[in-house]
Design goal:
By secondary structure, this protein is mainly β. 0% of the residues lie in helices and 39% in strands. It has one domain. The protein contains no helices and 14 strands.
């Protein structure tokens, strides 16, 4: 697949746009996905992945290594049902798809992780459930009209044994 400056066709249904509105400030890659190539119920702000078992895009969820794969974040849905998915770079994120939780893992309110609470959402702390995947996906960073940046980092499995804050561990040998 060769990319020209602004457009490339993956197949008849998916299109890639690499948009550089101003090289100093805004750089992003958008993929358009036509309906019915995605699961019903996917809306603006959802984090999605490709599911090869049913040949469609579905909501990502941090409950397993397979479900936590991320293709991108849906920025908008066109009137004809086409998903505009940001796979990398600047995005205007729907704030209704974020979950603010308190926790002891990395995070806070600038880095958001794939949610372990609700499929398709992001949350300000990584999931704390054992064996869930901790995967940073979005960084808050307002610039121009954008709210932040999609950063699809590799995730890692939350350990099965969790140490709570102020927990004392004793090792006897």
């Amino acid at each position: 697949m060769a990319l020209d400056k602004n457009y490339s066709t993956i197949n008849e249904l998916n299109k890639i746009f690499s948009i550089n509105e101003n090289y100093r400030y805004f750089s992003r890659t958008i993929v358009q996905i036509d309906y019915p190539n995605y699961q019903q119920g996917i809306t603006s702000g959802d984090v999605i992945r490709y599911d090869p078992s049913n040949f469609s895009y579905v909501k990502s969820f941090a409950n397993s290594s397979i479900n936590s794969e991320v293709f991108g974040i849906v920025e908008s849905v066109s009137s004809d049902g086409t998903l505009n998915v940001v796979t990398n770079g600047s995005i205007i994120l729907n704030p209704g798809k974020t979950i603010n939780v308190t926790g002891t893992n990395s995070g806070g309110n600038d880095i958001y992780f794939l949610s372990g609470i609700s499929a398709g959402f992001i949350q300000n702390y990584g999931p704390t459930y054992a064996d869930y995947i901790i995967k940073p996906i979005y960084q808050v960073g307002p610039h121009g009209n954008y709210t932040g940046i999609v950063r699809n980092y590799i995730g890692y499995k939350n350990p099965a044994i969790q140490i709570q804050p102020n927990q004392v561990l004793v090792a006897i040998s």
